[in-house]
Specification:
Elements: E1 4-6, H1 15-33, H2 39-60, E2 68-77, E3 80-86, H3 88-110, H4 116-135, H5 139-159, H6 166-199, H7 207-211, H8 217-234, H9 243-250, H10 255-262, H11 265-277, H12 279-305, H13 310-329, H14 334-365, H15 381-394, H16 401-417, H17 419-445, H18 462-480, H19 483-497
Helix pairs in contact: 1-2, 1-4, 2-3, 2-4, 3-4, 3-10, 3-14, 3-19, 4-5, 5-6, 5-10, 6-8, 6-9, 8-11, 9-13, 10-14, 12-13, 12-17, 13-14, 13-16, 13-17, 14-15, 14-16, 14-18, 14-19, 15-17, 15-18, 16-17, 16-18
């Protein structure tokens, strides 16, 4: 396990605590302001300040230092403690979280959603919980924040749902996510008990302390599957994705999906805790996981092609591409880990762009049925271009962040699993390109019925155009300028891959 350096070594203030507390303060401010006419201005200012804090974290981070940096510790109650620190992977995901939050704030105003002060308060509550999840090195803290985050996200799903089925949607969401948290909690408790038995002392849930103790072979596989299944529901990975199509069709169009899908917390949890703590179990079961991932690629791709609802199509696209990402994770090489981190960020940005454009289309048409969408490019060209760029980014086209990431993933997949799995992943990506381009053609280019009143579709507002341009620029900028981000996570990837040297594979 990497050592640590205190936050004062790199920054003049506790930057990780600030990243968590600023959104909480903003939440209180939003609730206090009520219907104040400047609530949007305050929301944008706070989101920008949070993004600047994230940029300062990136600026202060030393990628050549192999230690965990900006360490903050506070003993709370018994084995439960606050322990935060950051490596390159943390910095990358923190930047993504801050950027997506700013875009959600702008989108919420552009969509003219009701109860904006409440919306912004909920957005900042979710951001604060996500920041805690990203910076914590305490497993029990991670589980607690995962549970707390369900409340504001669930409220988003229910409060801004677009269907009368909102109660059923909320119920399904809480059932799936609640089971995921319970599985995580059970696995974490077993790790804490294993630590106490091994040391003869008290319990601990701290990553650095848990990593110093071998997990008993008798419980190793059980703990792995408890943690893996708990995080797989959140990812979501086939066959644990059952909550997603329903929420995509009946829940909020874009606000909740950005936080549920744009930031791959399930993937982050695997990278931060499961791989470092259970390397033997990962080696024992990684082929089993990859077999399900390969099946998930084609299952979800076929299901996407059968959809008549654009939102459900996108849901299955997410499941298909998440399977490609999981193949990268369980290839267990340094390049694969590096590519998987970049692929997570690429998916986050691309999925956010797609759900934003879908939300803007829904506001104008009141439908997501592909049979009733056509010819929108004439009235919404910038939204169409943004949708196309985001769709191409998901399949890893050159010029997007996914291009280098997919190359790294497939390279290590070939070395670990041979040609069959790698070809399957590549073919799945081709199928994905097919259904996303088909959706773009149906919604934006085709004219299925000349009598459809496309000319009555409202044109994009300046703020909506700004969001669309931002999506395009961020995706292309990160794609053509990917070297700094790959360098940022290189050391983290090397540490993660160290226990999985090919000579250890039996």
């Amino acid at each position: 396990m990497m050592g640590e350096v205190h936050w004062s070594t790199h920054a003049g203030y506790p930057v990780l605590a600030s990243l968590q507390l600023l959104p909480l303060a903003a939440m209180v401010l939003m609730l206090t302001l009520g219907k104040h006419h400047k609530v949007l201005l305050f929301g944008v200012v706070v989101a920008l300040l949070e993004l600047l804090l994230a940029v300062d974290l990136y600026r202060s981070f030393d990628p050549d230092n192999g230690l965990m940096q900006f360490s903050e510790r506070l003993t709370l109650i018994g084995a439960f403690s606050y322990h935060a620190a950051a490596d390159g992977m943390t910095v990358l995901f923190v930047l993504l979280n801050a950027l997506l939050t700013l875009m959600v704030v702008l989108y919420g105003h552009a969509r003219r959603l009701k109860s904006q002060p409440i919306l912004f308060a909920v957005i900042f509550a979710v951001e604060a919980a996500l920041m805690s999840l990203l910076v914590t090195l305490d497993l029990l803290w991670f589980v607690l924040m995962s549970a707390l985050q369900l409340l504001p996200v669930g409220y988003m799903v229910w409060r801004w749902a677009t269907s009368p089925e909102r109660d059923l949607v909320l119920t399904r969401f809480l059932q799936f996510m609640g089971i995921g948290v319970l599985l995580l909690l059970a696995g974490v408790m077993m790790l804490g008990l294993n630590y106490a038995d091994a040391t003869g002392g008290g319990w601990s849930f701290d990553l650095s302390e848990l990593a110093a103790v071998k997990v008993s072979p008798q419980i190793r596989s059980v703990v792995f599957f408890l943690l893996f299944y708990g995080l797989a529901i959140r990812t979501p990975l086939f066959p644990f994705h059952g909550w997603l199509p329903m929420i995509a069709e009946h829940g909020s169009v874009a606000v909740a999906p950005v936080f549920l899908l744009g930031l791959k917390i399930g993937v982050y949890g695997l990278l931060r805790f499961v791989f470092p703590l259970l390397p033997e179990a990962v080696l024992q079961w990684h082929q089993f996981v990859v077999a399900f991932a390969v099946a998930g690629i084609f299952y979800a791709a076929v299901m996407a092609l059968l959809q008549v609802n654009l939102r459900r199509l996108l849901a299955f696209a997410v499941v298909s591409h998440t399977s490609v990402l999981v193949i990268g994770l369980f290839s267990l090489g340094s390049a694969a880990f590096q590519g998987s981190m970049m692929l997570s960020v690429n998916f986050g940005l691309a999925i956010t762009g797609l759900v934003f454009m879908i939300g803007m289309v829904y506001r104008r048409t009141g439908t997501m049925l592909l049979s009733r969408l056509s010819g929108l490019f004439d009235r919404l060209p910038l939204l169409g271009i943004s949708f196309l760029v985001a769709g191409l980014a998901i399949v890893g086209m050159p010029g997007t962040p996914g291009f280098d990431a997919v190359h790294l993933v497939l390279e290590d997949s070939m070395a670990r699993f041979g040609a069959l799995v790698t070809i399957a992943a590549a073919l799945g990506n081709v199928v994905a390109a097919g259904f996303l381009l088909w959706a773009f053609q149906r919604a934006f280019l085709s004219r299925l019925d000349e009598r459809q009143p496309v000319s009555q579709v409202e044109r994009a507002s300046p703020l909506e155009k700004l969001i669309a341009v931002t999506v395009i620029l961020v995706l292309l900028g990160a794609g053509f300028y990917s070297e700094p981000w790959l360098a940022l996570v290189e050391t983290s990837a090397q540490h993660l891959s160290a226990p999985f040297n090919p000579s250890l594979v039996h």
